[in-house]
């Protein structure tokens, strides 16, 4: 699976971890916040009720900071032995740092842990779908800047179709078709007519934005009841699994779209790295000439997989309407397609890592919500930047140089 | 040679296709975004007065302040029997060109809807001193010297703090958990003024009744609170509302265009009996989809303000003195309880009438740094 070249690990990771752990220590020592933070693990109405965690701020802060310094030290030790810092160390570090920050922020307040995490899944869902679409498309060698357009087309079409037919499942199907249609244009121009893929993608985003806004103003608002009031998917708790404390309500009391997302992430991962289809896709994206030599129809493979990518991203678009707020709104994707694109790169063109990247963004967004509600001393304009800052730090600081599929962005012309 | 020819043909057709595609994009952009002024003839023109309007990025169909302002102009035009012209903006860069196209269409009074158009309107007004302008929700005072920046702009503004105060009082009286919440679209004066009033209404209730109702999502003293960062009814707004519900809030006032829809969907998901407070229009009338949730709405008489401005301008009484909607002139107020009538306390309406009288005669004060200064 591993496609990265082995590099001698540098000091970047331990230095970053060290800075963050010192920041954490200083935060607790200098701010002098005293009191208790309450982490509520169960909300009323759940089968298993866990007692709320009551954490004394100063003591927990010092324990967490010491653990963080320990992890940074471990990372430094690995570097002296010329070994990479394992990903799990960074993940544990990130989680601990976040817990520390929350303990500090929620002094004398209650943090609804399940609420924070449930919101994270919901906010990440369209990004995860978009990122999956991006991964498939780029792995096969076509840069997909049009994720935003595919999401928006999916959101629009699913709202209209579900509204007219009163059947959300038909809306879901229509969203996939809409995403595919956007992809057809992308595929036709970039594969058949060899137009620069980035330019086609950008233009497609603007085109879909213009079209959906136009139809929203001119058609949908004429008869909102008929055209833009789709039934939403109901939450569908999975028996037993949804009764597990914390994890149950977060992962297994969701709508169908979220369940399809779990399956989609697993399928794309398994498909890309463990099936004949995936091998072909990657071959076409890495070295189309070689793939051609062994008899793979490069352009046909690209065309259909870019279309598949559009269908997956279109599904994500349906989440905006059928999974979230029901009716379609102008520009409702609000740039999440571009965040999905960042997640693809941050996730190194790997569906699982891209999903984690999307979850990170969703978490940061919801964290900002939750912090704003209890009143944080940071101005709200800065708080709104939080998810983007986290993404930039994650992409620039921890990922560093990455290499995408070699032939992504280059049209294949048979010699 | 044949091969070459084929290549040339391919390239040409590619260029043609791209060109066609590009022009399609341009056409769509024109259609969707900065639309050219459209004629809407009503009856035969009795006078040749031409009132015009530019929307902000929300468009005239936002079920909120653009739409209400537009309805105000339409009502005035109907009464006068004149035509109107309007230009819809979809991004901020549309503002100057939309204003220019209305000036070119010989408009007599151009109404800009919203705070965001302030700079563009001042610029257009300075360049065209013979045209009259009105701007909704803004003083057109971008150099902060306390006066309108051009002497042909009439601000149409609303001191909603008093009306929001009443809504806060009603919320505090209605909550069962003792926690009420609010959140906004963006941290701009026309949004935060509602939140200021709301919180003071709750505080007033607390002192009067010895209650301890808490407000989440806004802090009057620091002017900091919860914002979605935009006016889209999306998952962001929904999860923010969800976050308030997680803190046991049972009365929510979302401030900013359509974001109340997200809050309403979060309330549906929670399966609890949560009250929603609307802003700008009486949501019970303008969007009955969620009619059982609306406790009340904070009314901002945009339609009335614009209508009066257009009517007086037609009579030649245009002045640059601001139109200020207040509780006293019924330019702002709160809506009836509608379906919540049976659930609120029997004495609430009477108490609200007393508070309103107190706010008007000055015995109760509601203040906001965002209040229009006259």
UniProtKB/TrEMBL annotation, chain A:
Matches recorded under CDD domains: TM_PBP1_transp_TpRbsC_like
InterPro entries cross-referenced by the UniProt entry: ABC_transp_permease
GO molecular function: transmembrane transporter activity
Membrane topology summary: Multi-pass membrane protein
One GO term describing the cellular component: plasma membrane
Coiled-coil regions, chain positions: none
Name this polypeptide is given: Nucleoside ABC transporter membrane protein
TrEMBL record, chain B:
UniProt name for this protein: Nucleoside-binding protein
Organism lineage string: Bacteria, Bacillati, Actinomycetota, Actinomycetes, Micrococcales
CC per GO annotation: plasma membrane
Subcellular location: Cell membrane
InterPro entries hit by this protein: BMP_lipoprotein, Peripla_BP_I, PnrA-like
Organism of this sequence: Klugiella xanthotipulae
Key words of the record: Cell membrane, Lipoprotein, Membrane, Signal
Its membrane topology: Lipid-anchor
Keyword RNA-binding: no
Keyword DNA repair (UniProt): no
CDD domains: PBP1_PrnA-like
Pfam families xref list: Bmp
Signal peptide, first to last residue: none
Domain ABC transporter substrate-binding protein PnrA-like residue range list: 53-349
Family recorded in the similarity comment: Belongs to the BMP lipoprotein family.
């Amino acid at each position: 699976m591993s496609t990265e070249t082995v590099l001698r690990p540098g000091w970047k990771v331990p230095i970053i971890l060290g800075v963050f752990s010192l920041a954490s220590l200083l935060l607790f020592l200098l701010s002098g916040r005293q009191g208790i933070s309450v982490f509520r693990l169960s909300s009323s109405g759940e089968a298993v009720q866990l007692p709320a965690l009551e954490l004394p701020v100063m003591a927990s802060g010092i324990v967490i900071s010491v653990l963080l310094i320990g992890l940074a030290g471990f990372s430094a030790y690995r570097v002296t032995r010329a070994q990479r810092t394992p990903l799990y160390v960074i993940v544990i570090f990130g989680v601990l740092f976040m817990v520390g920050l929350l303990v500090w922020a929620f002094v004398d307040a209650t943090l609804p842990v399940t609420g924070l995490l449930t919101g994270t899944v919901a906010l990440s869902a369209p990004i995860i779908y978009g990122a999956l679409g991006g991964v498939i498309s780029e792995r096969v060698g076509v840069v997909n800047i049009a994720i935003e357009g595919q999401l928006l087309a999916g959101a629009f079409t699913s709202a209209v179709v579900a509204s007219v037919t009163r059947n959300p499942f038909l809306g879901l199907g229509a969203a996939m078709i809409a995403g595919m249609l956007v992809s057809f244009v992308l595929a036709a121009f970039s594969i058949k007519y060899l137009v620069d893929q980035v330019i086609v993608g950008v233009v497609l985003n603007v085109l879909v934005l213009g079209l959906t806004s136009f139809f929203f103003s001119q058609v949908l608002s004429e008869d909102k009841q008929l055209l833009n009031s789709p039934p939403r998917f109901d939450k569908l708790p999975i028996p037993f699994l949804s009764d597990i404390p914390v994890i149950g309500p977060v992962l297994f009391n969701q709508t169908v779209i979220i369940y399809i997302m779990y399956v989609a992430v697993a399928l794309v991962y398994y498909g890309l790295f463990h099936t004949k289809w995936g091998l072909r896709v990657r071959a076409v994206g890495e070295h189309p000439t070689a793939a051609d030599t062994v008899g793979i129809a490069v352009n046909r493979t690209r065309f259909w997989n870019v279309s598949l990518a559009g269908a997956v991203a279109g599904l994500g678009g349906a989440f905006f309407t059928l999974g979230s707020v029901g009716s379609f709104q102008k520009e409702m994707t609000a740039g999440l397609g571009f965040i999905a694109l960042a997640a693809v790169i941050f996730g190194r063109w790997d569906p699982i890592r891209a999903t984690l990247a999307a979850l990170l963004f969703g978490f940061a967004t919801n964290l900002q919500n939750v912090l704003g509600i209890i009143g944080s001393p940071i101005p709200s304009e800065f708080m709104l930047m939080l998810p983007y800052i986290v993404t930039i730090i994650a992409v620039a600081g921890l990922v560093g140089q990455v290499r995408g599929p070699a032939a992504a962005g280059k049209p294949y012309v048979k010699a | 040679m044949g091969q070459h020819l084929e290549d040339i043909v391919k390239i040409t057709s590619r260029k043609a296709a791209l060109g066609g595609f590009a022009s399609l994009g341009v056409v769509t952009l024109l259609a969707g975004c900065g639309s050219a002024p459209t004629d809407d003839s009503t009856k035969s023109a009795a006078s040749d007065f031409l009132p015009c309007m530019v929307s902000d990025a929300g468009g005239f169909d936002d079920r909120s302040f653009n739409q209400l302002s537009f309805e105000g102009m339409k009502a005035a035009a109907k009464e006068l029997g004149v035509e109107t012209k309007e230009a819809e903006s979809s991004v901020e860069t549309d503002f100057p060109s939309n204003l220019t196209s209305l000036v070119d269409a010989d408009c007599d009074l151009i109404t800009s809807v919203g705070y965001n158009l302030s700079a563009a309107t001042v610029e257009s007004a300075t360049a065209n001193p013979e045209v009259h302008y009105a701007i909704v929700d803004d003083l057109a005072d971008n150099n902060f010297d306390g006066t309108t920046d051009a002497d042909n702009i009439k601000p149409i503004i609303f001191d909603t703090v008093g009306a929001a105060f009443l809504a806060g009082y009603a919320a505090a009286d209605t909550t069962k958990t003792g926690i009420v919440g609010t959140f906004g679209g963006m941290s701009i004066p026309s949004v935060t003024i509602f939140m200021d009033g709301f919180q003071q209404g709750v505080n007033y209730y607390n002192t009067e009744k010895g209650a301890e109702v808490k407000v989440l999502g806004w802090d009057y003293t620091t002017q900091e609170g919860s914002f979605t960062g935009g006016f889209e009814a999306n998952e962001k707004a929904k999860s923010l509302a969800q976050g308030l519900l997680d803190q046991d809030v049972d009365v929510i006032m979302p401030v900013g265009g359509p974001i109340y829809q997200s809050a309403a969907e979060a309330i549906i998901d929670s399966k609890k009996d949560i009250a929603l407070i609307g802003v700008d229009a009486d949501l019970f009338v303008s969007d009955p989809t969620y009619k059982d949730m609306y406790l009340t709405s904070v009314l901002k008489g945009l339609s009335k303000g614009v209508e009066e401005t257009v009517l007086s301008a037609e009579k030649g009484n245009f002045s640059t003195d601001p139109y200020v909607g207040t509780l006293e002139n019924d330019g702002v107020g709160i809506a009836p309880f509608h379906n919540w009538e049976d659930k609120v306390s029997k004495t609430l309406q009477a108490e609200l009438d007393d508070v309103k009288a107190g706010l008007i005669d000055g015995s109760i004060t509601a203040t906001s740094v965002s209040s229009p200064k006259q």
